[in-house]
Amino acid sequence: MALSKKPVTGMKDILPEEMKIRTYVQDVIKSTYAEFGFTQIETPCVENINNLSNKQGGENEKLIFKILKRGEKLKLDTAETEMDVVDNGLRYDLTVPLVRFYSNNANNLPSPFKALQMGNVWRADRPQRGRYRQFMQCDIDILGEPSNLAEIELILATTTTLGRLGFKNFQIRINERRILKAMAAYSGFPEESYDTVFIILDKMDKIGLEGVKEELLKDGFDQAAIDKYTDLFVNVEKESNPVAYLAETLKGFLDEDVEENLTEIIESVKATKASDFEMVFDPTLVRGMSYYTGTIFEIAIPEFGGSCGGGGRYDKMVGKFTGNDVPACGFSIGFERIVLLLMESGFKVPEKNDRVVYLIEKGVKGDALCDVIAQAQKEREAGMSVLVTRMNKNKKFQKQKLMEEGYENFKEFYKDSLK
User: Which residue in 97, 174, 102, 93 sits closest to 142, CA to CA?
Assistant: First the structure.
């Protein structure tokens, strides 16, 4: 039987044209984040299954690629549950690995610690436009900073990066998990049902307010609580200052510092931003991860029609590893979707005119060939990018393809001229 030449479902081969853009985007991300004081780290792609399944990852925990135990440890004949045969899994995001990394190395790290991590993650998700089962994530996180300076720096670093990649007129949608909980409590939903309520609310952009009402009712929630809850969203849209309106309406349910904290983040970013974007308070923003404890935010780019990254504060997660909570906040840029949008727009990587092709006739051999390669080496030492290749029979077509790859300068070497 012939071997399959196609990648497995949900994963893809990356051709040179896309790889060039991916490398460029990574370089812009790294250089911009470095300017904000973030330092790069790396963690393994495989994590302990207990870390990945700790009820912090929301729906993503259902999408883990799990790894069977190996050798004598794999006892299929006596196994009664899945956990009897599984011990590890491929990471579904970079936050869980980062927190484990920090918990293990905190004594050797500065405080606060500003981390940049880039790497592939895996989710057994349904593939669709801009969504794969293996994809690159680019995260920045600040651990050990309790104030909203962390959120401000994360948003500014991310939006500055997007601006340098040519994106304009996008939005940073922002909310607070404490506002979400206060709205649910004010409406009369029992605390143990909050996660269910938020999962339904998260569908607002797809099913609308009436759809949210129907799903809440279908799940058995009280009609009076549903009406009181959805009225909040209707009323907040009419307000010029929705954060202040909710702070006043939710008195007794909402911590007093939330309004000041969220307003300061929004106003500080607006006053100091270096890119063309809008800060938008969105009380329907939920974010799927259960580990968020405070501010949450998301990138909305009109050309994509969905989220192109997001993050938030997760102050309780380090404590799951060490027993001691450490304030933490992070922002993940939607790398694959950013690359997709750049490719669909016809983006070309900006390049200096320092690339040259040496086309060598097939008859050039021995000392003559060494002389040509030596010349190429000198140009490389001078900072040029030199592609040395044999001349094809159809030289015109060969040069055309090379020009499509960005080469403009050609030097041709024939055996008769090199004698």
Answer: 102
